[in-house]
Write a structure and sequence with these properties.
The chain has 365 residues and is mainly alpha-helical. It is built from 9 helices and no strands.
Length: 365
Amino acid sequence: MTTDPPRSSPPVDDRPSPVLSPGRPPTLPGPISRAEVDHMDGAGMVNSSAAVPWPADSSEPNGSLQYSSAPLLFPVNPWDIMLCMSGTVITCENAIVVAIIFYTPTLRTPMFVLIGSLATADLLAGVGLILNFVFQYVVSSEAISLITVGFLVASFTASISSLLAITVDRYLSLYNALTYFSDQTLRYVHSMLLFTWGASLVLGLMPVLGWNCLGAPDTCSIVRPLTRANLTTLAASFFLIFVLMLSLYVRICKIVCRHAQQIALQKHFFSATHYVATKKGVSTLAIILGTFGASWLPFATYCLVGQRAYPAVYTYATLLPATYNSMINPIIYAYRNQEIQRALYLLLCGCFRDAAYRSRSPSDV
């Protein structure tokens, strides 16, 4: 009795699956060779381990967010694409604000100086996100990674600190309304700007000057190459700034309500117009603080509780909304201001009727 010779099984792709390892970029399979194409099964599909650029197991450690330069079917991380797109929008929005304030001589009051500082910080943050994408996939090295991360840390720190400075300025414009436009206020503004950018520069230089985890991968945080201690310091600084802003905005609401009551007493009645204006002012303050908190609180919280072994998708999912704050800032603080609207219309149209606008003070929120 003769037996059929055993069928030879198709060759199995024994190359290792891509794995995200702490402190190293993921190793991805190379391109599919002609021999592998010849051994496709009847459905015309190849071994899935050579076609999937990311591991199927989501419990792999959270390592570097960089990828090797090997040719892939889908070589670019979609999260990095979204961060780069966010950086592009941020750059365009804030570049317009910086140009308007710089080329308009009338926008030199303390309020517009602080708005210009915020727009400059957000502009640098947007440029940093774009450069991070380019350097990650085109020119990848540890030195460039350190410089890029330090640049982003300094930019976002300056942005958050500028928001605090604007809040302080709004509080002073209400609390010391009679002396707000004095030289003393201008000195306060210059001091706040000096402290804001000085502290941001120091925090941004820390990873470059040696406070990083490149030499000790076990100390890496969810954002490589920052150490866990470094990221904890940044998160604690954010919560401190958030608490200060919350306290100041509560005081601003009290001052606005007290001013509305004083006006009502002088006119012997509290009109519907005053009620609507007061309600609108308080609602605007709630939107400002709520937007800031919703953007940054998830990422700041995850910086404190996240571990290096967690999947990278958690870092991306909390970091992306934080970048949206720099996208919303020019809308809240710049484009809603009528002086900047007027300058923008003059820039775009070349003509505008002066009677249609009135100057606004920092207390107009």
